Amino acid sequence: MPVLRVTDGDTSTVEDVVVREHYATIVLNDREVVTLLCSPAKLEYLAAGFLLSEGLVKSRDDIITTKVTGNKQRSTVRVKVKEAVGVVKYASSG
């Protein structure tokens, strides 16, 4: 992406890498759980880690399938599990 770089009073336009915001909604067994603002990479791992860390699944072996759909700004990560534990809807944004 073109970026205006300012150094010691001098300016130049250069190409640089910038962070891109991405909304990812995690759906657990057809129930929306949360929408996170994140990097758009490896959303399957993000969803699995979130569900494990929040105690919504007991282990990664509980996850049957994970499917990511969406575009450059927003994705939905649908996770099917054997048994969801304590599923509640967290905060949703976007």
Radius of gyration: 18 Å
Average the pLDDT over all residues and give the rounded result: 88
State the total count of DSSP E strands. 6
Low-pLDDT segments: none
- How does the helix and strand content classify structurally? mainly beta
Molecular shape: elongated
Q: SSE order in H/E notation?
A: EEEEHEE
* Biggest sheet architecture: 4 strands, mixed
Number of helices: 1
Strand order of the largest sheet: 4-3-6-5
Distance between the termini: 24 Å
What percent of residues adopt helix (DSSP H or I)? 10-25%
- Beta-strand content estimate: over 45%
Q: Which helices and strands occur, and which strands form pairs?
A:
Elements: E1 2-7, E2 10-15, E3 22-28, E4 31-38, H1 43-53, E5 63-70, E6 74-81
Parallel strand pairs: 3-6
Antiparallel strand pairs: 1-2, 3-4, 5-6
Describe the structure.
The structure is a single chain. The protein has 94 residues and is mainly β. Helix content is 12%, strand content 46%. It is built from 1 helix and 6 strands, in the order ββββαββ. The strands form 2 sheets. A 4-stranded mixed β-sheet has the order 4-3-6-5, with helices on one face. Strands 1-2 form a two-stranded antiparallel ribbon. The longest helix has 11 residues. The relative contact order is 0.25. The mean pLDDT is 88.
